[in-house]
Structure formats: C-alpha cells, structure tokens
User: Fold this.
Amino acid sequence: MTPTPKWLQKAVFYEIYPQSFFDTNGDGIGDLGGVEEKLDYIVSMGFNAIWLNPIFESMFFDAGYDVSDYKKVASRYGGNSALTSLIKACHEKGIHLLLDLVPGHTCINHEWFKQSCKPEENEYTDRFIWNKDIWNVDPKFNWIRGFYDRNGAAMVNFFSIQPKLNYGFARIEHPEYEEPIDGEGPRKTLEAMEDVVRFYLKQGIDGFRVDMAGWLVARDDDNTATPKVWKRFFEAIKPEFPESAFVSEWAVPAHSLPAGFDMDFMLQDLHYNSYGLLCRAERGKHPFFEKEGDNETAVKYFEIVNPQVEEALKQGRYLAMISGNHDTTRLSEWLDAKEASLLYLFMASFPNVPFFYYGDEILMHYLKGISSVEGGYNRTGSRSPMQWDTSLPSAGFSSSAKTYIRLDEDRAGLSVEEQEKDPDSLLSNLRKILLFKAKHAALDNDASYRMLENGKNGVLIYEREKGGEKLRVYLNPRGEGKAFSASGEILFALGEASLENGSLSLGEQSACVVKLA
Assistant:
C-alpha cells in the first residue's frame, strides 16, 4: 500500500462551502475568486489545507452533489480558469487543496446518463444500473422510470435526480441486469472516474474528499466488495500521484484505510464513530465539552475511538475529526465560545487530521426553520453566508443584499472583524491553538499517543511524542478547578493554569500543554 503523503503530518484543513464563503461579483453567490481573495486570512488562522465542497457543473438540486460535468467548474464559481488561478495562489501560499469527488452518482442531465437512456446500445449503456423490465424492480432500491425511451428503470442513490453509477453488485440476485464488480460495465465506470481524478491531479489539485465512499457497490452488506473497488482505484492512481491525498466519507476506518484511503472522517451516527459524544447532544446526553457535560460520553467515545487511532497510526494513516460540516447542525447549538475553545485544542492536539468548517471559528449560528435551498432541507441552516464584518447589506459576504441563503439576523459579535479585535474570542483562541500546534512536532498528526485520563473524572489527559519532544495535554471542561501532581513546563494554556513544586493547578474550563523533561 502506498505511503500517505508526508504533508498530512502537519495538515490542518478548512472546509469551504463555496456558495457561502465570499462573493466577488455581486450576484449573491460565493465563488472561487472569493476563496482566492481570502487566502491570506486562511493562512493567518493557521490552516494549511482547504477542502472545497463541490464546484463542478451541476443542476444544483443537491448543492453540487448532482454533477452534470465532472470536468467543468460551474460558471457561477468562475469556470475552469478560476480553479487554475486558485490552485496557483494556494500553492504559492503553502496551502494544499482538495476537491469534493462524487463518484457514486451523477445527475440526470450528465451526458453519460443521457447516452445511457438511449434504447440503442452504446458505450454508456451499462454506466448506470438499469432494470431490464420497467415494472419488475427490486423494491430494496430506489428507481426512476417513465422519462426515457430506454425500456427499464434506472437505480438512484439519494434524490430522484441522482442516478447511481454502476460499480457492480456484491451479491447477484438478478443476473439479467446485475453485474459483479469485475464486470465490463463496472470496470468502465471505475476507469471513467480514474480519468476524472487524473484530470485534476495533473492540474495540481492535491487530492479529494470522497463523498459516500463506502456505498459504491450495491448490496454490499458486509462492506467487502467496495474496498476491493477502491483498491483497484488506488493501484491505478497512487503510483502516478504519490503525494495526492484522499479522505473518505465512510466512518469505518477498518474498511476505508486498508482500501487505500489516507484518512477517514469521524462522523456522527455513522457506523462505529460517535464524534457527537464530545461536542453534540447524542442519545439525550450532554456532550463532554459542555461545562455541565456528561463524563460517560467521553468514556464511551474513547472506548470506540482509541482502538481506531492505534490502528490508523500503526498503518501510517489517519482519522479525520471535524468541528462540523455542511451536513451537520452547527456546533453553536451545543457549545459556547469557551467550551468550543477547549474542543478545538483537543482537535488540534489529538492524533488526527483536523477539519474546521467555515464559520465555526466564530461560532456562527445554525439557522432554524429557514427554507430549503438547493436540496439542503434541514441542512440549509448550516450553510448560511460567512459573516466577515458588520457592514450592510451582507456582512461583508457580498455587495448584494440578496444572498442565495439568507444571513443570520442575530449575528452581533459573530464576525471575523469583531472577533479579531478581541484577544479572548473563539477566533483568537483558535488562531493561537493552530499556530502553537504548527511549532511542535509532538502535536503532528502522526505523533505517538498515550491516554492517561479518559474523561471518567471530568478531565482528559494524554501524551504525544515525536522527534525527541514529549508533551502532555490537560483538558478540564468542568465548572470547578482541578489539581494534579505534575512536573515540566507549561507551554500553552487556555484559561488559568500554573505549575509549581510538582503541582499543576488548572482552573475551571481551562486547559494546558506541558512539556515533559
């Protein structure tokens, strides 16, 4: 298996939802020129990598996750030339750039699907999964039918405008139209996706976040066939582009990492990962990082995650922890700025590749009850425009008063401009955390890890070591101070911390990083 890129050892990602980040042409929609214009801000925060949500040509019924042309950047984002400019600008500033790959489906107006809909056999006939009989469909799957000349129904993945690409079936039940993963149709589909990836890697893109990576093969109940498909993909791509990085939306590192992915996301309510235990209400319990949080949530979290961390480090690969993303309710629903600061120190010091969602650095609100935009539905409230300043009409996001998702009306104190003036703001704290992380090898994403306290007593204590440096992290999110026997030197602190005569005193809702002798 190809080693992971060395640059991931120090990578800290900033996820950008391009529609909502910064609008340079006044149409109320963010664009790639806006991302480029804000690169200095991104660097100043301590981020050295970006994940862009989908930017390809699309019907935008699912915010770009319904691709109509993989090789064209949507005109509303500035087209392919804007991406070329952004790649160059990112690399000049030392930023790596990941695009969002949607390999499982296209939209109904993609040329591949249009050709596949024709009754005459052609090279795209088996690019998608078609039942041979328009009436006799497998009820375990979703289908679209009746709109095309071809006799049959096409399987869809999510929305009805997203026909599923054909990567085969793990178990054949209808041999008249189902193929195994090594069938001709699935092989050609995989080759087509490899071609898309090469197209961008050759331009200098540094890799991809892969949407729904664990759901390529149909009827793959035990997750054994989909990893085989990804192994073939990486065998074709990685030798040619060894420094490219791929992070999977899979949340099962036991499957994704051996398949060849460099990282796997820790996501809420997906299989074996429970990142919500730390920072979001889950199953009626208060998350650990709340001031009055439930200690058992951390105990449960580390029971699940520690074995996965150890296995990832052993493989030379990574887990990827998120503050939130375009599909999750914003963090501000559960944590305040002080609580979030402690969470962010944990994310930066725990062995993982951390991903921070735009706006989480200023604790932007989740907008409840707003109308769905571009298939966002309840997720739309986490996708509102970035609040750069207090100016009108659109908080520095756009010169237009009409933005495609409305602004938060209750945003006092929640802008970059305001928080940059406050040395104790969440933004200022995150900046200090990330700049501290960058200076210490023992906080590299691949540094060794040993847990000492797993939250049972309301605190987290763990050690990281690399390159002759050994650090111990103390996190106390509770509303009362704590004391510990300790020695060494405090290098970094949030809140109140002092270390004298072998005793470490940690104030309420405080944390520190101690350098051990």
